[in-house]
């Protein structure tokens, strides 16, 4: 039996919640914006990995240097901890449709899809909380610290608030129904390490107060269903003032989007992808066209009109 698992792209931080907010994305045209992993029993009795897709050229050529192999090893270790010593190896195929260093949760998408597929293949030995913890640990190996703002929304869908308490890593927040999100990758890459290094070591008291005010208002507005207030609260005093210099044309893009009716504009994760929130698909389509013409830098870039993906990671196909 073979099954294919899809894990959507995500917006880490959502500007107002550095490392503690994230949202999953779903293009309105039905396109799959995320990575997929297909898993089946290995015909040769040992682990095998094949990588395909638009952005496969940036992956290591040695399968054992790929994060999918790391996921497999971590999963088997956890299986051994619960007394599962199945010797049946698997063959996995990664369809890499998210660019590395894009700010769209590329590594999280691969990791989440891999763990979800492994859990399904081996009969669901782990529950949701345990699987999410495993995903976060692997993501932390790549970024240098464990944070769930991409893996949690990618896995669970919706908008997630990171609690990181015992047995309760994240909490789903309400979604504003009429929000349309333009997600644009300009075609360049920024590493998470580079984007973190540019941030200051200390912030002013005023910035800390503003950050808390905006985050509190945002969550309050979501529960009230006040989309205008929620979007108005999407302000980044922690990262955007410093990271925007890494994204060519960011200030011009923001000015254009606000002039066209944007409710909020921000950097997606560490960048260079950006997101624009508006209250109608018609406005979003016009912004999407502007992005294609003026913000995307090369043929690797892309733009999508999206909604919040409420489903998260799921099985796309299962064959006997």
Question: Topology of this structure?
Answer:
Layout: E1 2-8, E2 10-12, E3 21-27, E4 34-41, E5 48-52, H1 67-81, E6 90-95, H2 106-121, H3 128-143, H4 151-156, E7 159-165, E8 168-173, E9 180-185, H5 192-197, H6 205-224, H7 227-232, H8 240-243, H9 250-259, E10 264-267, E11 274-278, H10 281-294, E12 302-308, E13 314-319
Parallel strand pairs: 5-6
Antiparallel strand pairs: 1-4, 1-13, 2-3, 3-7, 3-12, 4-6, 7-8, 9-11, 9-12, 10-11
Q: What does this entry look like structurally?
A:
- With 320 residues, the protein is an alpha+beta fold.
- It has 2 domains: 2-173 and 309-319, 2-Layer Sandwich (Ribosomal Protein S5, domain 2); 180-307, 2-Layer Sandwich (Alpha-Beta Plaits), CATH 3.30.70.
- It is 35% helix and 24% strand.
- The chain has helices spanning 67-81, 106-121, 128-143, 151-156, 192-197, 205-224, 227-232, 240-243, 250-259, 281-294; strands at residues 2-8, 10-12, 21-27, 34-41, 48-52, 90-95, 159-165, 168-173, 180-185, 264-267, 274-278, 302-308, 314-319.
- A hairpin with a 2-residue loop joins strand 7 and strand 8 (168-173).
- The longest helix has 20 residues, at 205-224.
- Catalyzes the ATP-dependent phosphorylation of L-homoserine to L-homoserine phosphate.
- Residues 66-158 form the GHMP kinase N-terminal domain.
- It catalyses: L-homoserine + ATP = O-phospho-L-homoserine + ADP + H(+).
């Amino acid at each position: 039996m073979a099954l294919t698992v899809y894990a959507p792209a995500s917006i880490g931080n959502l500007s107002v919640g550095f490392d503690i907010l994230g949202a999953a994305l779903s293009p309105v045209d039905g396109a799959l914006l995320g990575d997929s992993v297909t898993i089946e029993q290995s015909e040769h009795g040992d682990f095998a990995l094949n990588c395909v897709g638009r952005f496969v050229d940036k992956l290591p050529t040695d399968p054992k240097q790929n994060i999918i192999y790391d996921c497999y090893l971590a999963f088997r270790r956890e299986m051994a901890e619960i007394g599962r010593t199945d010797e049946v190896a698997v063959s996995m195929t990664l369809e890499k449709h998210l660019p590395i260093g894009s700010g769209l949760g590329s590594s999280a998408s691969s990791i989440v899809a891999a763990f979800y597929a492994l859990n399904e293949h081996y009969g669901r030995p782990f529950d949701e909380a345990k699987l999410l913890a495993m995903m976060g640990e692997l993501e932390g190996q790549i970024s240098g610290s464990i944070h769930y703002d991409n893996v949690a929304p990618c896995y669970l869908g919706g908008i997630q608030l990171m609690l990181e308490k015992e047995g309760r890593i994240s909490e789903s927040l309400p979604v504003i129904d009429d929000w349309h999100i333009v997600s644009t990758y300009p075609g360049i890459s920024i590493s998470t390490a580079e984007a973190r290094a540019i941030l200051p070591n200390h912030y002013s008291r005023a910035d800390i107060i503003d950050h808390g005010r905006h985050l509190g208002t945002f969550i309050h507005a979501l529960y009230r269903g006040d989309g205008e207030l929620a979007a108005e609260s999407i302000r980044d005093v922690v990262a955007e003032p410093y990271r925007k210099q890494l994204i060519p044309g960011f200030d011009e893009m923001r000015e254009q989007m606000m002039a066209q009716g944007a409710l909020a504009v921000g950097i997606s994760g560490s960048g260079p992808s950006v997101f624009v929130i508006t209250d109608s698909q018609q406005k979003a389509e016009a912004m999407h066209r502007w992005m294609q013409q003026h913000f995307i830098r090369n043929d690797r870039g892309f733009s999508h009109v999206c909604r919040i993906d409420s489903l998260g990671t799921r099985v796309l196909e299962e064959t006997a």
